[in-house]
Design a protein that fits this description.
CATH class of the largest domain: Mainly Alpha
Strand content: 5-15%
Number of strands: 4
Shape: globular
Oligomer: single chain
CATH topology of the largest domain: Glutathione S-transferase Yfyf (Class Pi), Chain A, domain 2
Structural class: alpha+beta
Bound molecules: glutathione
Number of helices: 8
Number of domains: 2
């Protein structure tokens, strides 16, 4: 039995997308994006009180990068991983983990724009800086994709899923249109059924209720 502990639109979405691409049976337990994740019940799955957590083979894995590596090793037939010795191995690891570099900026921006309710708690400087740093991440992805359809030369992989899902979150705070190679790749990979199945359905609460959050200018 595989059970994903999931908050729609969060980092657990990249594990959900990967599970869809792996084609393995799984269950999803959806959690609210609030202090419930700090409960003893939830922290028995992930002691840091974060999503994702993945119950599998009688144990529970957490940290999306580790879960991605472990799932790709556990189900190699789907071709989402690149094993040691594979010519794409280094690039696969680099891009799978670059997703977290992007996500850290998204987390800061999500906190600034959405989680902090009082304007006095927000910082225009942090918002502007973090949005600019996302653009630098987009430039790195765009550079890698110029002359390439996908992040790796050998075809679609968990690297595209991890970075693609990080870009899905980041697009709420920085525009991808100035990065044509990134934009074309993002449109291609998000046309996959596995991505659509990982998106929130109509009934699910969303973290992002706006398509775009412009940096706050301050008062
Ligand atoms: N590096 C961790 C980060 C996990 C993480 O921070 N997840 C966020 C959602 S995207 C979360 O659960 N936040 C809840 C909180 O900070 O209280 C991973 O990749 O799994």
């Amino acid at each position: 039995m595989i059970r994903l502990h999931h908050v729609p639109q969060s980092r657990s979405m990249r594990v959900l997308w990967l599970l869809n691409e792996l084609g393995v049976p799984y269950e999803v337990q959806v959690w609210p994006f609030d202090k419930t994740l700090r409960s003893d019940d939830y922290r028995s799955r992930n002691p840091a009180g974060r999503v994702p957590a993945l119950e599998i083979d009688g144990t529970c894995w957490w940290e999306s990068g580790a879960i991605t590596e472990l799932l790709c090793e556990r189900f190699p037939e789907a071709g989402m991983g690149r094993a040691p010795g594979h010519p794409d191995r280094a690039q696969w690891l680099i891009w799978v983990h670059f997703a977290e570099t992007i996500s850290q900026h998204v987390a800061a921006l999500t906190q600034q724009h959405i989680m902090l309710r009082a304007d006095a708690m927000r910082s225009a400087t942090v918002m502007q800086l973090e949005a600019k740093r996302l653009e630098k991440c987009f430039a790195a992805i765009d550079g890698r994709l110029s002359g390439r359809d996908l992040l790796l030369d050998g075809g679609f992989s968990a690297a595209d899923i991890s970075v693609g899902q990080a870009v899905y979150m980041a697009r709420h705070f920085a525009r991808i249109e100035p990065f044509p190679a990134l934009q074309g790749w993002y449109e291609r990979i998000t046309a996959r059924p596995g991505f659509a199945l990982a998106c929130p359905n109509e009934a699910q609460a969303r973290i992002y209720t706006q398509a775009f959050y412009a940096p706050w200018e301050g008062t």
